[in-house]
Amino acid sequence: MTNLFKGKFFYCVGEDLNNIVNKSDCLSANYHWERKEYNFDSLLQAMLTLFVMYTKDGWVNIMYDGLDAVGVDQQPIKNYNKWILLYFLSFMMMSFVLLDMFIGVMVQTFHQCQLIQTQEDEELRNEEHLSGSQGTEGESPEREQTPSFEGSWMWYLLYKICTSRALELSVTVIVIINVLLMGVEHYNQPEVINKVIDCFNYVFMIIMITEVLLKLVVLGVVTFIKDCWNLLDIIIILLSIVSMALTQLRMTNVIPFNPSILRACRILRLSQVLKAKTLRILLKTINKTLSQVWNICLLSLVIIFIFGVLGVELFGELECSPDYPCLGLHRNSNFHNVPMAMLTLYKVCTGDNWSGILKDTMRKCRPDDAKCQSFLFWVSPLYFSSFVIIAQFMLAYIVIASIMQALKDSEEEAETELRRQQIFPSAEGNAEISTLDQTDNRSTPSDSISL
User: Fold this and answer.
1) Cβ of 334: how many Cβ atoms within 10 Å?
2) How does 338-376 read in b/e, with b if 16+ C-beta sit within 10 Å?
3) 126 Cβ partners below 8 Å, 6+ apart?
4) Does 427 fall in a domain?
5) Mean pLDDT in residue range 75-89
6) Is a pLDDT exceeding 60 seen at residue 442?
7) What is the pLDDT of residues 197-210, one digit of tens each?
8) What CA–CA distances, in Å, run from 95 to 50, 301, 384, 397?
9) Eight-class DSSP state of 33
């Protein structure tokens, strides 16, 4: 690209450019003949331009500059060379492939390091607990005790209803309908809609309370509380009751928030779909990666702090003015102090116009600017390129690698749990059936009526 585009990324800056064809016309009209910040005039500048395109930030503008390029000392013409699009589009397609390869290398390296660390930890545990591990061999996993139904067959029926998947799906459908009704509310809605929504809210509340009370009676308080999903149901019901009570008591003007907001907490009941196998695995994956992501975030914070302090020393005196405007730096994004520099670098991590910030730090010094440092034209690309590679690429892909490893571990645990349930299902089922048979043999008409 250096041989193809060198000297062609210049343009004339002036008021009337209709009659400007080349550099001579521009200078004769007392205009300025300037060069694009990202160009291909040398190998280093071409590598920097291609790196900016590789990060997907500002690559469209560079492509348009190449599309408009005419020749050396020639004024650009819009869409002059359309065939050059093949180069830029093919490079961007290749950058996606290289990015995927980079991610693959990072993930594979992370998995290898984690595997070596796991083997070392396993060997250390085996050495320390060799005698204890031998004593625990052959023990069968503890099975959950099934409740006995010595009162009546009706207890067994209620137990099956409370623990059935159909009840969960029915309540989920009711919650979805309730959410849709909440979405019907709008500004200046008729009073009829308010009454209909209130009636449905009361009906839904009665159904949810009945479900919870039924589970409390059949399962027992201790068994009911052991399940965290049941505790979530209780919290949602309490919040809904408080919301209705505050609304009926007309406390809207007294409390600092609208009590109807608490009704939106019913949406949390939809989290019961997390009981599905696949979603439960994903939930475990998130739980496992929180510690690793926290460590990576802490490492990222340290790196951002180090680069922020260095950025204040290098770019702390850069100023923008109406006659010398900036493309990326402004009052909310600069290097005047360490906190603002860290915020600016965090934006660079997200890929938000970091190429514009790089342009501002590579500006040529004005004759009357004594604070300007001419070496920034060479230091700035090294500073931002190294930061983008470390923070935007390596650390972000380490997070992806840790999530993939945690997902693999969660799937293996789910398969192990499934195999354990397949090994010990018959004993629990036989125990439940025998208990039910004994109950039916001992039951009398009076027993079957009384609960």
Assistant:
1) 23
2) eebbbbbbebbbeeebbbbbbbbbbbeeeeeeeeeeeeb
3) 133
4) no
5) 86
6) no
7) 888 888 888 888 88
8) 10, 28, 19, 16
9) E
Q: Which domain holds residue 258?
A: 153-275
- pLDDT category at 441 given cuts 50, 70, 90 is very low
Output phi, psi for 376, to 5 deg.
-65, -25
Phi first, then psi: give them for residue 321, nearest 5 degrees: -145, 165
Token digits of residue 134: 């031998």
* pLDDT tens per residue across span 301-332: 899 999 999 999 888 888 777 777 788 888 88
308-309-312 Cα angle (round to 5): 85
Q: Helix 376-387 and helix 354-361: axis angle, to 10°?
A: 160
Environment class of 234 (CB within 10 Å of its CB; exposed 0-12, middle 13-18, buried 19+): middle
Question: Are 19 and 64 in a shared domain?
Answer: yes
Higher pLDDT, 261 or 132: 261
User: Residue 137 falls within a domain, yes or no?
Assistant: no
Identify whether residues 391 and 336 lie together within a single domain: yes
pLDDT at 418 > cutoff 80: no
Among 189-193, 220-224, 264-268, the minimum mean pLDDT is found in 264-268
Reference 342, options 387, 385, 291, 293; nearest CA is: 387
Supply the pLDDT for residue 309.
92
- Tell me what the mean pLDDT of segment 54-74 comes to: 87
Buried b / exposed e across 187-210, counting CB within 10 Å, b at 16+?
A: eeeeeeeeeebeeebeebbeebee
- d(Cα 221, Cα 213) in Å, to the nearest integer? 10
Contact between 149 and 155 (Cβ < 8 Å): yes
User: What is the reported pTM?
Assistant: 0.59
pLDDT at residue 378 greater than cutoff 80: yes
Q: 422 lies in a domain? A: no
The dihedral through the CA atoms of 392, 396, 398, 400 has a sign that is negative
pLDDT at 141: 44
Number of domains in the chain: 3
Is the residue at 127 inside a domain?
Answer: no
Q: Give the separation between CA 130 and CA 122, rounded to whole angstroms.
A: 11
Residue 124, token pair as written in the block: 């250390």
Q: Which domain CATH number covers 318? A: 1.10.287.70
